[in-house]
What we know:
By secondary structure, the chain is of the alpha+beta class. It is 52% helix and 13% strand. It has one domain (3-116). It has helices at 51-91, 97-116, and strands at 3-8, 13-18, 37-39. It has a 3-stranded antiparallel β-sheet with strand order 2-1-3, with no helix packed on it. The longest helix has 41 residues, at 51-91. 7% of the residues are buried.
Amino acid sequence: MSSRTYICVSCRWARRAEAAFGLVTELRCPLCQGGLWELSRRWRIPRKTDDDGWRELAVKVERDAAEWLPRRQLMGIAKLARLDEQISALEKQAASKGRNIRLKRLHRERAEVVVRYR
């Protein structure tokens, strides 16, 4: 299991948790209840009193968000298209127990993709 640091820039709060590799997580800041931003290993977390360090980190987060969020959305759209294709192909097959199990799994996976890539 890989872990990453998640931060809330406005509260200057950080925590470690399992890596989501840029996908949406349910992690929230305990102070403001806002979403946390996942950092890769190359980022240094400044002390809470380091105003310049937090300003610099906020700029980096904004820049990465502008770059990463559209890419994440495209990845999600591609995964949904692939899953929809598989579901469509399975629905055309004759009904069977195995087909129903695979369809259920694909529908569940599709719902997870919608949540993770929003």
